[in-house]
Write a structure and sequence with these properties.
Structural class: alpha+beta
Order of helices and strands: HHEHHEEHEEHEEH
Helix content: 40-55%
Strand order of the largest sheet: 2-4-5-7-6
Number of helices: 7
Distance between the termini: 73 Å
Largest sheet: 5 strands, mixed
Length: 269
């Protein structure tokens, strides 16, 4: 098959996209700086009008909308960084537990039961920990919002030695996603949440982060039953090599005949 050579028009389009991305990142930084001032003054005014409920309610709305803009800006900055953080070899279970620990109180208030099932040994993965924490947090937030009356949240960590990867699965018992909507959940700015309650970037940004780490994401859902989100990440190279050696040793041991002190063919008298 001949190598694909992009046309001049396609190259110009890619250059425009790259320039637009850089410009978006610059604007995002500026907007973020302005929002810091808006939120700061809003908090100050809120304290000044604490004894005037009607005005305080209006100030709270200002803060909520400003925080929503800040969340949108953070997502844009995440996309513009393109994996600029430092990768480390970490135990994925520790990354997941750290996020669950931070969300423990909100989950209890939401009447959500957490059930963790981890492989006995979880090999290390080479990731930017903060980025994977963001992925886990995005999935958790979606799961909790899908269970407004509480429910069960299962967190599974398994190792697929054959594929050389770790699978993080987060399952909820929420409302589920309609089949006609499911193919669109990773689209940017797509959301089924009420206006003002979601940016539609959480899963999109999560998938971008996972793919930057050489992994993949999958989602299954059934209306009235719940949703399962899977994150597959490749094992760190030393871990993958060690597992391969262990597997070869087990196979070799399986085929070795046991040694006995009695010569073959002898019988007791």
């Amino acid at each position: 098959m001949d190598d694909f050579v992009p046309s001049e028009e396609q190259l110009l389009h890619l250059q425009r996209l790259a320039a637009a991305g850089q410009l978006s990142a610059a604007y995002a930084h500026e907007i973020n700086n302005l929002l810091t001032g808006v939120l700061g003054y809003a908090s100050l005014v809120r304290r000044m009008v604490a004894d005037r409920p009607a005005v305080a309610s209006d100030v709270d709305r200002i803060r909520e909308q400003a925080e929503r803009i800040a969340q949108l800006v953070r997502h844009l900055l995440d996309l513009s960084r393109r994996g600029g953080g430092t990768r480390e070899q970490v135990d994925l279970s520790m990354v997941v537990d750290r996020v669950l620990g931070l969300r423990e109180r909100p989950l209890k208030r939401a009447n959500v039961e957490i059930v963790r099932t981890y492989s006995e040994v979880v090999p290390r993965v080479e990731v930017v920990p903060e980025e994977i924490e963001q992925v886990v947090l995005n999935i958790l937030n979606n799961a909790v919002q899908a269970m407004p009356k509480g429910g069960r949240l299962e967190v599974h960590l398994t190792v697929d030695e054959g594929e050389g990867q770790v699978c993080l699965e987060i399952k909820d018992t929420g409302c589920g996603i309609p089949p006609e909507v499911l193919p669109r959940v990773f689209e940017p700015f797509f959301t089924t949440k009420p206006r003002g309650q979601g940016t539609g970037l959480g899963l999109y940004v999560s998938r971008c982060i996972v793919e930057r780490h050489g992994g993949t994401m999958a989602i299954r859902s059934e209306v009235g039953v719940g949703t399962s989100v899977q994150v597959f990440l490749p094992l760190a190279r030393p871990e993958a090599s060690r597992l391969a050696r262990d597997r070869e040793a087990e196979e070799e041991e399986h085929w070795l005949l046991p040694l006995t002190e009695e010569p073959f063919g002898t019988e007791e008298a």
